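Could you join me in thinking about how sequence relates to backbone shape in a protein? We need material for that, and I hope you will provide a protein of your own picking. Label the sequence line and the structure token line clearly, so we can match residues to local backbone shapes. Would you write everything just below, so we can both look at the same thing?
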Amino acid sequence: MITKIDHLGIAVKSLDDAIPYYENVLGLECEGREEVESQNVKTAFFAVGEVHVELLEPTSPESPIAKFIEKNGEGIHHVAFGTDDVISQLAQAKDNGVRVLHETPIDGAGNKLIAFLHPKSTGGVLTEFCQPK
């Protein structure tokens, strides 16, 4: 079952260039940075109440984030919904004809299991399910 909006993923070319906006202009505190090798990204998280903002910097031209920035420029990349059972959420999506990008969850930032739904099946919004390990 979906329990909350966990985070909003924002594609950026450079964490070093983007973080000062969130800290100095918005007054948020960076909770930390992490590299997610399986996704070829570096991340930085900011808490905004119960929801987080996740900045995503590509570490390779083959990264999904690099390809997104090349096509669309920097900006909102995905919406992540927290769930208590990512496998059941994937099954529910597939049962309803939604195209999934991951048949089984993969390791994500923040010690979470994640899986994505294809935006062509979700009204143009890249959707992520995430669950703490």
Remarks:
- The longest strand covers residues 2-11.
- The first helix runs from residue 15 to 25.
- The CA atoms of residues 117 and 127 lie 5 Å apart.
- The chain has one domain: 2-132.
